[in-house]
Specification:
Structural class of chain B: alpha/beta
Number of helices of chain A: 14
Order of helices and strands of chain A: HHHEHHEEEHEHEEEEEHEHEHHHHH
CATH class of the domain at 46-69 and 99-238 in chain B: Alpha Beta
Order of helices and strands of chain B: EEEHEEHEHHHEHEHEE
Radius of gyration of chain A: 32 Å
Largest sheet of chain B: 6 strands, mixed
Oligomer: heterodimer
CATH superfamily of the domain at 46-69 and 99-238 in chain B: P-loop containing nucleotide triphosphate hydrolases
Largest sheet of chain A: 6 strands, mixed, barrel
Shape of chain A: elongated
Helix content of chain A: 55-70%
Distance between the termini of chain B: 29 Å
Structural class of chain A: alpha+beta
Distance between the termini of chain A: 27 Å
Number of strands of chain A: 12
Strand order of the largest sheet of chain B: 6-7-8-3-9-10
Chain lengths: ~425, ~240
Amino acid sequence: MPIWEAVRFAFASLRAAKLRSFLTVLGILIGVASVIAVVAITQGLDEYVSGQVLQLGSKSFTISKLPAVITSRQMWEEMQKRRDITVADLDVVRSVCEACSEVGGSSGTGRTAKWRDIKQEDVSVLGVTENYSRIGSIRELSAGRHLIPDDVDHARPLAVIGSDLVDAFFKELDPLGKTILVGGRPLTVVGVAAKKGSVFGNSQDNFVWVPLTTFRKLFGTQRSVTISVEARSMALFETAQEQCRVALRSRRHLGFSRPDDFSVETGESILDLWTTFTRNIYIVTFVVTAISLIVGGIVVMNIMLVSVTERIREIGVRKALGARRSDIRWQFLVEAMVLSGLGGLLGVVGAAVFSWILGTVLGHIMSADFSAPVRLWAVALAVLVSASVGLVSGIYPAARAAALDPVVALRNE
Amino acid sequence: MATTLTPTAAEDSAHIRTTDLWRTYQMGAEQIHALRGVTFTIQANEYVAIMGPSGSGKSTLMNLIGCLDSPTQGSYVLRGKTVSEMNDDELAAIRNREIGFVFQTFNLLPRASALHNVELPMVYAGIPRIERLERARHALEMVDLADRANHKPNELSGGQRQRVAVARALVMGPSILLADEPTGNLDTATGEDIMRLFGKLHESGNTIILVTHEADIALHAHRTIRLRDGHIESDERRS
C-alpha cells in the first residue's frame, strides 16, 4: 500500500476522533511549543545582546577595578579589596601603550539633576576625558560641541548632556548655554548627545558628561577610574590589551605569580558570558523538552493501543478484504506519525503565537525593537522529531494490529 | 482411463477442490477437531449452501474456503492454486482477488462512506484512485445504490448496508462470493431482496457459497452441503 493511501486512512480515522486526537498530542504540542518558543526568544535576545555589545566597538576595551559580571558575594568582597584605578594609572597607560590609538578615562556616580524647579533623578554623571566619546561606539552630538582638552585641563564646569535631560528640562528650548544643577553643582551645557534608546530597559540617554578633572573636583577623588582604550587596529587588539596589562602590573608592582588586580573587558568577553548563559538555557530547555516528548510518546503509544483494541473488528474486515500484515502495520504506524506530527505542527503554531506575544511584551518592557522569530529549521525539526516520536510509539501497537488473526479479529464484538 | 486419480493442482478443472480437510484447535491441553476430513469439489457458477447446526464446523469451513485460515491437514485447491500451502501475504492476495465476503453483520467501516467502503479492497490491490472511484460507483449502481454513494453506513437501512457489502464483495471481480448468514440481521422481506440479488448474481455467472442455518435461505441454492460434527453429512443437488 503506498504511503499516501496510508496517510489518507490516518487522516480519516483521526478526523473521526478529533477531540481524542487533540488531547493525545497535547503533551507533544506543549513540548514542541515550549522548545520553539524558548529557542526563538533566546535567539531574539541573542541578536539583541550581540547588537548592543557590538556597539562597544570591536577594537576597544575597558580596564576597570571591578569585573563586568560578579557571580557571588564572596567574589564581590574579594573584588572590593582591589586598589582603585587612579588618574596616575591612566596617565601611565596612556604613555606606555603604543598599540593604543586612544586611551581615555571615566569615573561615574549617580546624582539628581535640576533645572529651575524641574528635577531628573538618577542621572548618570560621568567624568570623562575629552576623547571618551571617540572610543568604542562613537557617540555623535545632536547639538553643540564635544568636550575639548582645554576643558579638561582647566576643569571647566561644562557638560554634554543626554537627550533624556533635554526632554525633561528644555523641551523646545535651546539647551546650549543653559546652566543646570547636578548634585547641586552648576554646570553649563555645551553639547547634547544623539539619542540612543535603551538596553534591557535602561535608558542610555540619561547622563551628564563633565570633564574628568571637573568631576573629581566636584564629586571627590576617591573614585576608581575606568580606562577606555581603542587599539590602533584589529591586528593590534591583543597587543594593546597586553601592553596595558603590563603597564598597570608593573606600576602596581604585582609579582609574577599574582593575578591581575583589575579587569580587562572586551565586547567579546561580555558576549562569551552571554553565550555561556544562553547555552545553559538551551540545555535546560532540551532536557525539559526531551522529557515532555517521552511522556507525549507514551501517551501516543497508549492511545494507539486503545485504538487497535477498539478497531480489532475493522482490522479483521481489512484483512478479509485483502490487507496484508504490512498494510495494517503501515496504516497504524502512519497514523501514529501523522497524529504526533500534527501535534508538532500545532506546537509550532502555539510557539509562534507565544513568542510573538512574549517578544512584543519584552520589546515593550525594554522599549526597544525586539523580535523573537520562529525559525524554519526549528519548525522542520519539531515536526520531524514529533513524527519520529510517533513512529517509535507506533511500532508496538502497529505490530499488535498486524499480528491479529483475521478469523479472531472478525469474531471480535 | 484412470479417472479415479486425484488430478494435480495445475490440471484441476474444479473451481474448488478440498481433500481431507482437517482443522484442529488447541484448547489448553485438549485438542478440538472442528473439521475431520472434509472432501468436496465445487464447479464454477455453482450456487451452494453450507448448512449445519452450531458446532458442526461450518464456520471453520467457511474460514478455510475464504482463506482467512489454513487447514491443519489436507489440501485446498482454488482455481488450480494450492491455497493450503500459501503464506500469509499470498492468502491476503487470494482474499483480495478471488473471494468476495458478505457477512451477517455487514462489517462496513462505520466512518467511511458507502463509496469508500466499496473502494477499500481496490486500495489493497494497488489500483489507482481514479479507477477505484469509477469502479466503486459502478459496483454501487449494480446494487441500485448509486444515489447513496456518499452516505455513511449509519445513514443506510440494513438492506442497503448489505447491498453496499455485496458491492464491495463484487468490486474486485472475485471468483467466489462467500456469504456468511447474509440475511441473519435483516427482516424477512429485506432478506428476500438480498437473496434475489444473489440469484441475479448467480445467473450472471458468479459462483456463490452461502453459509446458513436457515433452511428456507438454503433453498435458494442449487446444492446443499450439510455438516455435522466436522463431517459432511449430506451433499444434495437440486435442479
